[in-house]
Amino acid sequence: MNVIESVQTILQPLFPGLLGIELSEVAPERVVATMQVRPELCTTGEVLHGGAIMAFADTLGAVATFANLPKGARTTTIESKTNFLGAAPVGTRLSGVCTPFHRGRTTMVWQTLVKTEAGKLCAVITQTQMVLPAPPAAEK
Fold it and tell me: pTM of the predicted model, to two decimals?
């Protein structure tokens, strides 16, 4: 099982799986995924709810950080900022491309561009992930 399949398997039973996020690239310097805009993810006017866009981007930033973690470490989002620039109508397939601004020992900062399949920019998200060190080995 490759890294994309492995991460996709982990995410499938969780919220990202419910959103329908499909990873296509997972590397330390870039994560790419798609998501179909379905009616149950929309708000009035049959456009994707802003929270769904934020959750899509948050997932990509977490996966990108995961791809950079030392063995046994974990991550959590500590800050996220979203600029909404355009609507994503129901039926649209979105793509998200997540790239680093900073990959440090204790924090990582990522930017995710969310676009429609036609290339229209819908949102720009900048998020900070905290790197949580591996817990000490359990004492016997």
Answer: 0.94
